[in-house]
Design brief:
Length: about 240
């Protein structure tokens, strides 16, 4: 009677092996980045030790699966929440074998006014596997800043970047959007952005917001931020 060798694969093993996806190559990863950036949604091109620091300080999670869930959610939610939303890649280049840089633009309408963000996303690839190990976003709003409409547009935009399951009016979403809008509105103002870095302005913004909580939220927050600007103006004279 023949005895099956321990090294012989069972039928279950053969099925599992057949179901496995083939490993991606470095070129596969680069092509996927070009196709999906700046919101990559393919888990198989991301290394298990992904490093990602979002521009908006939401708690996205540290695992590749958390990042993919976040980007999949954004690709569905942004066109729904922002009027006439459009996102397009303007340039992709590779300065070295382990770096891919994608430049892109996002646009939408806010109170019938066109808003535009120019950004770039840098993808670092693992030397041996070629998988994505680091993702770094840089944003810059175009057009006139330092005014009330720009502040409100930034606040509304930031709220749309909340992770899946985070309500729009929540204790995680509102402070994050408020701090982002305050920084973007005042960072180029020499009386405020020239004297405070982002962390310092975040602290002052929340102090002003807490003091203004008895008023209508958005208007109170906006006036609180510009009261801060006024205070710096008088302190510098």
């Amino acid at each position: 009677m023949a005895v099956q060798s321990e090294e012989t694969e069972s039928d279950d093993d053969k099925v599992q092996l057949a179901d496995r996806l083939p490993p991606v190559t470095r070129q596969d990863v680069i092509e996927r980045i070009k196709l999906e950036a700046p919101l990559v949604t393919s888990r198989d091109v991301i290394d298990d030790r992904l490093s990602y620091k979002p521009v908006l300080k939401y708690k996205v999670g540290e695992s590749p699966a958390s990042y993919v869930l976040y980007t999949m959610h954004l690709k569905q939610s942004l066109p729904k929440e922002l009027d006439a939303f459009n996102m397009q890649v303007t340039r992709t280049f590779q300065p070295d074998p382990n770096t891919v840089i994608v430049r892109w633009r996002m646009s939408w309408l806010s109170d019938t006014k066109a808003m535009v963000i120019s950004g770039s996303t840098t993808y670092r690839l693992q030397t041996s596997s070629g998988l994505i190990t680091s993702i770094n976003d840089i944003w810059d709003f175009e057009g006139e800043k330092n005014n009330e409409q720009f502040f409100r547009s930034c606040f509304d935009f930031a709220q749309c970047w909340r992770p899946l399951g985070v309500p729009k009016l929540s204790e995680q979403n509102i402070p994050t959007a408020l701090k982002f809008a305050s920084w973007e509105t005042l960072k180029d103002n020499e009386l405020v952005g020239g004297q405070l870095d982002r962390e310092e302005l975040d602290i002052v913004t929340m102090q002003m917001f807490t003091a203004a909580c008895g008023f209508v939220f958005i208007w109170a927050a906006f006036f609180a931020v510009f009261f801060l600007q006024l205070a710096f103006k008088f302190s510098s004279t």
